[in-house]
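Training component of the fellowship. As part of building independent skills, the fellow (R.M.) carried out the full modelling exercise for a liganded target. The chosen ligand was heme C. The inputs are recorded below so that the supervisory panel can assess the work.
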Amino acid sequence: VANRFENVQHVIRVALIFAIGLVSFFVLRGFFVPSDFGLEGFYRAGARVDAQALPLQYAGEADCLTCHVDVADLRAANRHKAVSCETCHGPNKAHVDDPTTVKPARVNAETFCVTCHAKGAGKPAFLPQIVAADHYGTACVDCHAPHKPRIDAGGEAAARRPE
Ligand code: HEC
Ligand code: HEC
Ligand code: HEC
Ligand code: HEC
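Fellow's submitted model of the complex:
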């Protein structure tokens, strides 16, 4: 009967390589994974604290409505009520904190309205869609008031800012 352990060194070499791999994995893992990883879930617990420390950018529609009552009235019963102020006007916490010095950036309706309303096969049916080239031109707010866009519902053309 041949010695069945005759070639055992081959197995030992492979086992050794696996062992070295495993040990280096745990050593490197200990080195690279932050100590607070996994305390609260599969993420670094400190990331939540880091995110909380970032300054707020968005105020939320409720804040806007405390001052802009006229816009709220316009929007009360039309379909754009579904779109919140800061979706169009951008993050405006700074303006809420200091409304006279910090003004919201101007919304360029000519390029902005079509980001939602340009016809697209994947868009939901409740979203009215147009092909801008076949519609009435790109000066959307000459005809559609942004806060009350339906033309036959008494919406006035957009109040334009003084130049
Ligand atoms: C504390 C009151 C107050 C709050 C809250 C407020 N605003 Fe205003 N907002 C003003 C005043 C006052 C002006 C006019 C500033 C001026 O023309 O000097 C203004 C102007 C604006 C303008 C026109 C800027 C221009 O250049 O004519 C926009 C757009 C606007 N606000 C959007 C918002 C949005 C969006 C929010 C919520 C994120 C908001 N506001 C919250 C008081 C407020
Ligand atoms: C569908 C996009 C859209 C939404 C939603 C929207 N706005 Fe506007 N808003 C505009 C556009 C476009 C203008 C005209 C261009 C400009 O001033 O930037 C405008 C103008 C304004 C102005 C200045 C002149 C005016 O018409 O009174 C104020 C103030 C304002 N918006 C506040 C608000 C507030 C407050 C909300 C939420 C209650 C809101 N907007 C929601 C697009 C929008
Ligand atoms: C963030 C996406 C978004 C943007 C930007 C946007 N809209 Fe809309 N708009 C909507 C949605 C959503 C509806 C339909 C809401 C519903 O029926 O629930 C709508 C409805 C409308 C309607 C149909 C109103 C009616 O009563 O039948 C018109 C017209 C319109 N938008 C014009 C505009 C114009 C002009 C602008 C640019 C000032 C604009 N929209 C910007 C999302 C958007
Ligand atoms: C010269 C005036 C005029 C201009 C400019 C204009 N529209 Fe209109 N739009 C209308 C009229 C009128 C209607 C309603 C009758 C119709 O559908 O032809 C309408 C309807 C719509 C509707 C509703 C379509 C539906 O299926 O219910 C949307 C959305 C719309 N417009 C978005 C826009 C956008 C976005 C722009 C800018 C790229 C724009 N419009 C420019 C006059 C205009």
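The panel noted the following from the submitted structure. The pocket of heme C (ligand 4) is lined by residues 113-114, 117, 128, 130, 132, 135-140, 142-144, 151 (CB under 6 Å). Residues 153-163 have pLDDT under 50 and may be disordered.
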